[in-house]
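User: Design a sequence. Structure:
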């Protein structure tokens, strides 16, 4: 990676994914403590997904001849409020991540003309559409439930059905 600025940009994205993974893990533990085990499962899998994003960026940087700089991750809160408040924080965080990737894309596009980095950032931007949509749906459904215990528990059960994302590079089932 010939450009120090590009290396720093990728390291910043690695840090964002690292913090995201830690944040969602903390939220998972909090939801489990409140006995919302399905929400805890959903958040734990989200944490793992963010960790995979971090690893993908690390591999990309190393493969381009760059140096990965793992920085300290700030301590995360231990409480996040109601399930609705927790998932509102998830949505806000996903919007922050999307904005960070947009800024990175704009920077690379305007300043460096590095097509390979543009492509990887574009892959993450595309995935962020789904990340925000999932979070928004959960927030909307929790608002609709209006603290009705049966509705919240039903949503908790549904979120617990989430399956891990396929490993990067894994062949699709049946194909």
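Assistant: Done.
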């Amino acid at each position: 990676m010939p450009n120090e600025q590009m290396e720093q940009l990728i390291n910043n994205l690695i840090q964002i994914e690292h913090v995201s993974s830690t944040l969602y893990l903390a939220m998972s533990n909090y939801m489990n403590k409140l006995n919302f085990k399905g929400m805890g499962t959903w958040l734990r899998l989200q944490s793992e997904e963010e960790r995979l994003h971090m690893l993908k960026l690390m591999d990309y940087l190393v493969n381009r001849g760059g140096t990965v700089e793992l920085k300290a991750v700030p301590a995360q809160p231990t409480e996040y409020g109601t399930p609705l408040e927790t998932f509102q924080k998830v949505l806000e965080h996903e919007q922050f991540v999307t904005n960070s990737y947009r800024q990175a894309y704009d920077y690379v596009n305007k300043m460096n003309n590095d097509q390979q980095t543009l492509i990887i950032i574009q892959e993450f931007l595309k995935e962020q559409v789904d990340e925000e949509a999932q979070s928004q749906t959960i927030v909307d459904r929790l608002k609709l439930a209006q603290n009705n215990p049966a509705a919240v528990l039903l949503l908790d059960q549904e979120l617990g059905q989430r399956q891990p994302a396929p490993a990067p590079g894994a062949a699709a089932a049946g194909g």
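Residues 36 and 153 are 8 Å apart (CA to CA). The helical segments are 4-33, 37-63, 83-112, 115-145, 149-159.
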